[in-house]
Amino acid sequence: MLQDKRILLILTGGIAAYKGLDLIRRLRERGAAVTPVVTRAAEQFVTPLSVSALAGEKVYRDLFDLTDEAEMGHIQLSRSADLILVAPATADIMAKMAQGRADDLASTLLLATDTPVMIAPAMNVRMWDHPATQRNLAQITDDGVSVVGPNDGDMACGEYGPGRMSEPLEIVAAVETHFGPKPLVGKHVLVTSGPTHEPIDPVRYIANRSSGAQGAAVAGALLALGADVTFVTGPADVAAPVGAHVVPVQTAQEMKAAVDAALPADAAIFAAAVADWRMATASDRKLKKSKDGLPVLEFAENPDILAGVSQMTKGRPGLVVGFAAETDDVQAHATAKRTRKGCDWIVANDVSPETGIMGGSENAVILITEDGADPWPRMPKAEVALRLAQRIADALT
Ligand code: C5P
């Protein structure tokens, strides 16, 4: 897949640098030539010798290494590649990139280049969430840099949250997509994602365990294939993909209004776990405990957004895809759901607690179309997303 591609891989100083070693192997397995660059801080985590041994090339370490300047020069080094990949990318290198600073070899290469740049951030969750990092991220993406991850998960520092570098195979998939065709350029795709929150009173709500991970990954994969993506998301745990037009909502009714406003679309992917019911009337004051007995919550049915769009008589998207989260008899229930709702495809998965799928990083899905059921092997949600996006592209083109 990456035959003859030259990748300049910059490793910066984070604990995830050890995954950078595996990344070198994976890239080379696919035929890429990897020229490695390490920062001073990266050398605290991996040795230049192991980096260069795995890459099968000299490792570049210092801007003022005169031999290098005579042989090639940092300008040529930065331009001889087809892609510059920064993995792991620390908060520090992101800050330098955002400001255009050039005080070491890595930052100078990044400033001196007109080659496409991709980064795989890795840092502590607080550092990632910090407004300064988020500001830098916005600046870098505005400047045209593409971003893989980070993922949610346990951190080396003992905390939990976004900031873990994507796995090497996820990064490889993003690199392959980068070099692959962009069949969805000019197509508008609507994606719903995350749970909805249905208020009981001003402080309480009904929700579900959806993290929004699969929906965000699908939107990210569609963006990578060149689509123009509107991402309507409930209060999810994971960040919205960079580059989407994001519409945040809380309730099912708000989600329906946002979907209606986002149409027309060439395709609509309903990955959200929408609450089936809301309160018939949410209290505008906090419910109090009372000696007179327990509160009685009366439900009303939420609009079925997927069914509504599937059954539109005018302006229906060319492809409508629903998701089905089931705990038993997955294929039969999902097949029935496809017919009942009137959508074109259903992506079904088993969300029984023992599968670890809800909130986890992997998924095992069955794609149900008019041609029948196609079970996919268990794989990372990012790969499910890429495969699905590719199928969507095939259907739209
Ligand atoms: O009926 P069920 O909730 O299992 O169907 C799941 C599919 O329907 C998902 O694609 C979900 O996004 C969509 N859905 C919806 N509006 C609802 C309920 C579900 O769009 N009110």
Blueprint (SSEs and pairs):
Layout: E1 6-11, H1 17-29, E2 33-38, H2 48-55, H3 66-71, H4 73-79, E3 83-89, H5 91-99, H6 105-111, E4 117-121, H7 125-129, H8 131-142, E5 146-147, E6 151-154, E7 160-164, H9 168-179, E8 188-193, E9 198-199, E10 205-206, H10 213-224, E11 228-233, E12 245-248, H11 252-262, E13 267-270, E14 277-279, E15 299-301, H12 305-310, E16 319-326, H13 330-341, E17 345-350, E18 362-363, E19 365-369, E20 372-375, E21 379-380, H14 381-396
Parallel strand pairs: 1-2, 1-3, 3-4, 4-5, 8-11, 8-13, 11-12, 13-16, 16-17
Antiparallel strand pairs: 6-7, 9-10, 14-15, 17-19, 18-21, 19-20
Helix pairs in contact: 1-2, 1-9, 4-6, 5-8, 10-14
Bound molecules: cytidine-5'-monophosphate.
Cytidine-5'-monophosphate (C5P) binds next to helix 12 and strand 16.
Q: Which tags fit this structure?
A:
five-stranded parallel beta sheet, alpha/beta, Rossmann fold, 397 residues, binds cytidine-5'-monophosphate, 14 helices, eight-stranded mixed beta sheet, 2 domains
